[in-house]
Amino acid sequence: MKIWIAFWNILKKDIKNYYLKPPNISWGIIFPLSWTLMQIIRSSGGMNLSDIRELLPGLMAMSVLFGTTSMLAVTITFERKGRSFDRLLLAPIPLSAMVAAKLSGAVLFGLFNAFVPVLFAAFFVSLPGINWGTLLLAVFLIAVTSALLGLTIAVSAKEVFEAQTFSNFFRFPMLFLCGLFFPISSLPVFLRPLSYILPLTYGTDLLGRAILGTGMLPSALCILILLAFAAVLFAFCHHNIRRKWIL
Question: Which residues contact 164 (CB under 8 A, 6 or more apart)?
Answer without folding.
Answer: 70, 73, 74
